[in-house]
Write a structure and sequence with these properties.
β5 (126-136) and β6 form a beta hairpin. Strands 1, 2, 3, 4, 5, 6, 7 and 8 form an eight-stranded mixed beta sheet that branches. This protein has helices at residues 4-19, 40-55, 94-110, and strands at 31-32, 60-68, 80-90, 114-120, 126-136, 139-148, 151-158, 162-163. α2 packs across α3 (94-110). It is 26% helix and 32% strand. By secondary structure, the protein is α+β, with helices and mostly antiparallel strands.
């Protein structure tokens, strides 16, 4: 059973709230990119394998890429982007899910991430049961235990939207499952 759509919807809601609506941004002022832009690719490539290992729950990296913040009908998707990382998987039971979140939280604490919020809901048939929201510099990360027919754990991180020069090329990490697949937005598929 593929739970990715439900996970993506829930994660989008949490992150939209925590980032003030960066997703699909076409108004306002995103952070300008430039020579002082952080190296998100390297940072995400260091953090996500460590999070997967720390969770010890069989999480798989689903996305590790730069993605557009613009509406899909805008042709120049590369002009405003953010970095996105997602690792997720189903787990056998609620004890495994909670233990995975505990381990992820402990690792983030030790690495200097700041806990912004912890939301715990009573167990129910479907929906988010426990959500940890962390930040470090300008990266927001959520670790979520969700019930979607079976327990599910997801770690999702993203950055604020940034404006890019016209020559900017969006990137995917080699750890992204779509790395190397042909795409008009990513050169790694060329």
């Amino acid at each position: 059973m593929n739970l990715r759509p439900a996970a993506a919807i829930s994660a989008a809601i949490v992150l939209t709230a925590s980032l003030g609506g960066c997703a699909m941004n076409t108004e306002g002022t995103p952070d300008p990119a430039g020579e002082t832009s952080p190296d998100y690719l390297s940072r995400f490539e260091q953090v996500f394998p460590a999070l997967v290992e720390q969770a010890d729950a069989g999480l798989l990296i689903e996305d590790l890429r730069e993605q557009s913040c613009l509406r899909p009908e805008i042709e120049e998707q590369h002009l405003e982007t953010r970095w996105l990382g997602i690792a997720a998987n189903s787990v056998p039971d609620s004890d495994t899910a909670n233990a995975a979140l505990d381990r992820v939280g402990a690792w983030l604490d030790a690495e200097g991430w700041e806990l912004q919020d912890e939301i715990t809901s009573p167990p129910k048939e479907r929906g988010d049961i426990r959500v940890l929201v962390y930040s470090q510099d300008d990266v927001v990360l959520t670790a979520t235990y969700r019930e979607s027919g079976q327990p599910w754990v997801e770690v999702l991180a993203n950055t604020p939207c940034r404006e890019n020069p016209p020559e900017h090329q969006m990137q995917r990490s080699e750890l992204d499952p779509d790395y190397g697949i042909s795409s008009q937005y990513y050169q790694d598929g060329a």
